[in-house]
Design a protein that fits this description.
Bound molecules: pyridoxal-5'-phosphate
Number of helices: 21
CATH class of the largest domain: Alpha Beta
Strand order of the largest sheet: 5-6-7-2-1-8-9-12-13
Number of strands: 19
Helix content: 40-55%
Structural class: alpha/beta
CATH topology of the largest domain: Rossmann fold
Mean pLDDT: 94
Distance between the termini: 21 Å
Radius of gyration: 24 Å
Low-confidence stretches: 580-595
Amino acid sequence: MTLNLHPRFAAYFSMEIALEPAMPTYAGGLGILAGDTLRAAADMGLPIVGITLLHRKGYFEQHLDATGNQTESPSVWSPEAVLQPTGVRAKVRIDGRTVQIRAWQYLIRGVGGHVIPVYLLDTALPENSPFDQALTDQLYGGDEHYRLCQEVVLGIGGVEMLHELGHHHLLTYHMNEGHSSLLTLAILDRHLQGRPAEQVTAEDLAFLHKKCVFTTHTPVPAGFDQFPGDLVRQVLGPERLATLERMNGLSGDVLNMTYLGLRGSHYINGVAMQHGEVSRGMFPEYPIHAITNGVHAATWTSPAFQQLYDKHIPEWRRDNNYLRYAIGITLGEIHAAHEHAKRALLDTIKEKTGVALDPAIFTIGFARRAATYKRADFLFSDIDRLKWMARHVGPFQVIYGGKAHPRDEPAKNMIRRVFEVMATVKELVRVVYVENYEMRWAQLLTSGVDLWLNTPQRPHEASGTSGMKAALNGVPSFSVPDGWWIEGHVESATGWDIGHEEVPDVPTEEIASLYDKLEHRILPMFYGRQRSYLEVMRHAIALNGSFFNAQRMMAQYVMNAYFSGRPGMSVQQILEEVRRPEAPVPESPIRSAAN
Ligand SMILES: *Cc1c(COP(=O)(O)O)cnc(C)c1O
């Protein structure tokens, strides 16, 4: 079979991409978003490519002992079994050495058969030193030197690899967060064709800007990758450094990857309306737009709801807008599909943990990376009141999941705290913490619980996406008004707010709001007014599932970012523009990511 992977108009760079459950090439929301973006692009027939690192040892496997102490081990997987070698090599200079890179290929096949290749860069080659061989092993592992070297492989190596693969005329390079910002340097250097850095002109920089799009995901400066100047000099070498300086790529004597991405791009966006605003406050000198995140609908919809949508709105896979018409699905069918998803979740919990949860009991879910700002233990702020509610208002049970970064002690303590409370409330409230939260668990949890809880400290949640997955499955959110929820929240219609967007977030008031609503609105509705609860579920799908999906997001990137500067041009015309004689790409069998 001939597979034409040319021409392509955009390359999407991300340090992590969640391609499928068997590939531990992601840590959390950022990687899931990257995978969902490319899956949606495949469904929409968009000719783009993805670039990431191979991560031979993944992020890590989480182990939790009986008191919630987390330990880690490498994720073992075999890239050779799931990926195709391209046979193509590129090289980069790191610490004065030449590092060889090869690319593995993963193909995402969209709903209409369109294929998007993802290239996973790998330095584990015998020609490389042992240190260099390990550069594409571990996601977010090692020290800052290791990280900077990885980012050279991703950003500079990625651009070189795309050229070696024959993608010479890409119109857009999209940086999903700052880890890949060094691609700006590689693009400019190639454009200079050997001219020295002193000769960089305004036109050269304009050429670069026109090609680059930057998406920031971090609303707090502490989240930016930064490297001291000495380290940058050592790793990049004098020529690259000269170009970097010429681009104004250093901030003082620091390489700040967010600033580098901002400076090199013509289009910059945050990932929800509020995050755009927060980002404009942080970087007032840049025009920052917002495109709210979305999730890939078919990936995150449980089998029971997939069947239901296939029956009533069969177009939904091709066009997620049709989810708006879920409003016409009967409450009985929504109830039955949810029971199915809940059963699948509880069965898996029984099998993996031995804990038998009761399907008749109201079930709350909370699972995401264990970062302190997400406040996993917030529900346990007033344990006496929690117990009182379980006894007098209605029973409930809680399912947790999430990994703490191996060096994030406060996050690890937060997990221990959940375990501590688990033990003290166990007579009245069953609490389960599932180990090693990843894609499969996320699919089960976001679809199988009755309520999706989200308690970030405002305004730290740039967007958040797990509540969107829940919405696709008719699971309402109960969330602090932060990130996407500011846009998705309609009180008692799509879910419930914790605290209020209009008033500052005082923790005591948020806690009061959390308990008051659980006691007076949510539990009574679930147990006493089932039809009303099912109405909320249906609205979560029709109002939020139809909007907070990756197809809508991708369409916005195309219209606002990729095609900006080319108003009125169609995808077809853009492709004409990039169609040139190109190097042949090695053929390989198609591996499908769509399920
Ligand atoms: C969706 C997802 C996340 C993101 O959760 P947030 O609540 O948006 O932080 C993290 N981890 C996994 C495995 C996911 O599937």
